[in-house]
Amino acid sequence: MADQLYHVLGAKQFSRAELEELFAASKAMEEVVKAGGDRRHAGRIMTTLFFEASTRTRLSFESAISRLGGTVIGTENAAQFSSAIKGETLEDTIRIITGYSDIIVMRHTEIGAAKRAAAVSGVPVINAGDGAGEHPTQALLDAYTIQKEFGRIDGLKIAMVGDLAYGRTVHSLSYMLANFKDVMIYYISPENVRIPANVKRYMEEKGVRYEETTDLNAVAGSIDVLYQTRIQKERFPSPEEYDKAAGQYIVDTDLMDRMRKNTIVLHPLPRAGEIAEAVDSDPRAAYFRQAQNGLYIRMALIDKALGGK
Amino acid sequence: MADQLYHVLGAKQFSRAELEELFAASKAMEEVVKAGGDRRHAGRIMTTLFFEASTRTRLSFESAISRLGGTVIGTENAAQFSSAIKGETLEDTIRIITGYSDIIVMRHTEIGAAKRAAAVSGVPVINAGDGAGEHPTQALLDAYTIQKEFGRIDGLKIAMVGDLAYGRTVHSLSYMLANFKDVMIYYISPENVRIPANVKRYMEEKGVRYEETTDLNAVAGSIDVLYQTRIQKERFPSPEEYDKAAGQYIVDTDLMDRMRKNTIVLHPLPRAGEIAEAVDSDPRAAYFRQAQNGLYIRMALIDKALGGK
Amino acid sequence: MADQLYHVLGAKQFSRAELEELFAASKAMEEVVKAGGDRRHAGRIMTTLFFEASTRTRLSFESAISRLGGTVIGTENAAQFSSAIKGETLEDTIRIITGYSDIIVMRHTEIGAAKRAAAVSGVPVINAGDGAGEHPTQALLDAYTIQKEFGRIDGLKIAMVGDLAYGRTVHSLSYMLANFKDVMIYYISPENVRIPANVKRYMEEKGVRYEETTDLNAVAGSIDVLYQTRIQKERFPSPEEYDKAAGQYIVDTDLMDRMRKNTIVLHPLPRAGEIAEAVDSDPRAAYFRQAQNGLYIRMALIDKALGGK
């Protein structure tokens, strides 16, 4: 049964054609929201199964199904999931939950958890993040935002900045961008948190051009997209080295002044101090628009998984 | 955009005319509930954003939007709010959440949090308590209960009893009562938790008569409303002094016997031991009716914020 | 008022006629779910008041009301229930909550909590487990599963296996089975966790035949139903004794081979290691069907409590 279901498990599952279809569907969802939502999925139930708190992502999914008339049941904290405490396997949990709803949105702490869930689920599973693994709906909303802001992804120069070793969003986004033509990626990070070899290998296999550097300033003036991420203190041997590294990559008005007129700034959010608040009023600051796009992407995914209108 | 929205932030924002309009709307909501609710806000989404647990208040708001056909998304615990953990500002959180729903009900631990939220929100914000600050919907339901029980507020004698220093409900209720004529307020408390100077000053500016005393018995026979509150042990230098102070203000059948036939007893609830259970069966015990009125007031506020029927 | 309400508090409240009516209603609910649910209780609100986490049970109830068009408000964790923290009695909590919804589903840590709630509630209360007390909806779904799998309960031989002292589900199920004719029960457990005297006394009063034994193998070949439960380590004086006891009662393919062709295996779930995963693919493994039946039973109960279609 599971084979015929539309699961969303990882960024690599999407072909260019599928992405374009999804972007068009997301655009249509913007109109649905503007019109106050519709009732196309009235009576359908979504289970949000969050083994790890991620309020922003959960609320975005819950808003998405609600805007389409559906209902939510769920749990927002793994620590309270009694079955997990009692030692039940994820598979058993899913075998039971699958009978309660029409779609499952799952966040988990372990890599591969979403795939394991999908393997035994009788309803579609959407991966809302599985540990250090994937977070495909984030990558989709990132790509959709670029598409929307420029009208295309082909031919763009995209800088990913910050912790490229542990930040799963830049990995998933890289995989997704590999579907497009003539994309150039700049991986800009401190030496100790460089983009992993397996991501680079994938990009090479797909023929995507990329460059690695530690120098954001050298690149800032020639890019279309600056994708900023957080750098976590605990990755560095000392606070001093962290401060030195993190300080290099702050997006402030000085940096904005050095960038082109139509270069946009993205960030998966939440931000700590890596984008100055003074940048918010710059029309090139696209990160709040980006967050909003997450709603439309998730509506489109849910709609597809539930079989459309 | 935010200027045109109807936010509910503090007790002082309400004029007498607005209160009367709101009381009439709340009365109408009672009829809506009796008829099993209606669907006037079907498709509208409320986000309940509780950075501090307050189940009673949250459920009251969730019931209110549900009775009007709307939907709830939300989080019931700040400790689980991952973005707060990761150091995101409240403003950033609101900037994102604002795109997910049509109204935000927020509880926070910090004074002024609701105002900060309203300043960046694209949808109406209702303050469900911000730390030691305000809790305007509690004050509204308190005032509405008095209006409903007596048919008026003008000319009533109202005693507020207990911890008047730290209990924010008595402050907000005082501000609200200042809209009415010939109200007489008795502030009755132990010496160490007297009503603050700024509240007294406000009442003086508004021309409201008040008296401060430690002696509930002296006043009990001549009041219309006894508004009882909790006294917290930790405010007192020793358990003995607490017991002495708290013991003076217990509402029991003896006290009820000394009060007039139509004097009502209110309490924001939960109560600990400051109203004896034996009092519950007395028709003058209005505190459960008061709690119920919270539903109607919140329905009226939500309805107004969402633009009415 | 409470007397006229349909509360679900304990297994003993159900007569045979009521059980048969409920089984028929549950069967009808299967058809409702297959048809995608209906809207018969649109506008009705269920409060799920869980003073103890039990995600599976809570989601099952929330799915049930959702499939009938109703709405859920609730709290999933007692530790966050501010009123409980502040020392409010359960009765006061219910007196307030009762005004927010049309039905209350409650899980609590204390025996008798559901009865106390029902005594002051203005709306029906369904007991979703009260400590070591009752869990009547589990017993109902257990009995319904047996009825459904065999077309009858009369005349069946049912083995209850595992921790029969502390496992409340086997107590409640025993009480319920006492309504049927010619049932034979085998209580199979380690010596230190035998079925309590009060359960045996009840069965004797009702004229139900039973046997106690420690030997599952001796009985396995002649039973219709094997109701497996968990054995908890902390009940045993040493890990060695636990391993010895628990190891005797594992349902694995060897045991399945020794059982008859139509003997079914039930389990209230979650399971730890007491049923091998290799058994899952055996058609006699009925425990996931059993969990699914919980949805239909709860829909039927909610429907009855809310006054039907």
What does this structure look like?
Chains A, B, C: Keywords: Pyrimidine biosynthesis, Transferase. Chains A, B, C: L-aspartate binds at residues 86, 168, 230. Chains A, B, C: Its EC number is 2.1.3.2. Chains A, B, C: It holds the Pfam family OTCace. Chains A, B, C: Heterododecamer (2C3:3R2) of six catalytic PyrB chains organized as two trimers (C3), and six regulatory PyrI chains organized as three dimers (R2). The structure is a homotrimer of 309-residue chains. The first copy, chain A, has 309 residues and is an alpha/beta fold. Chain A has two domains: 2-134 and 294-305, Rossmann fold (3-Layer(aba) Sandwich); 137-291, Rossmann fold. Helices cover 40% and strands 15% of the residues of chain A. Chain A contains twelve helices and nine strands. The first copy, chain A, has helices spanning 16-34, 55-67, 82-85, 90-97, 113-120, 136-150, 168-177, 197-205, 216-220, 239-247, 253-258, 287-305, and strands at residues 45-50, 71-75, 103-108, 125-130, 157-161, 184-188, 209-213, 225-228, 264-266. In chain A, helix 1 (16-34) packs across helix 12, helix 6 packs across helix 7 (168-177) and helix 6 (136-150) crosses helix 12. Chain A is globular. The first copy, chain A, starts with 15 loop residues before the first helix and ends with a helix. The mean pLDDT of chain A is 93. The interface between A and B is medium-sized, with 30 and 26 residues.
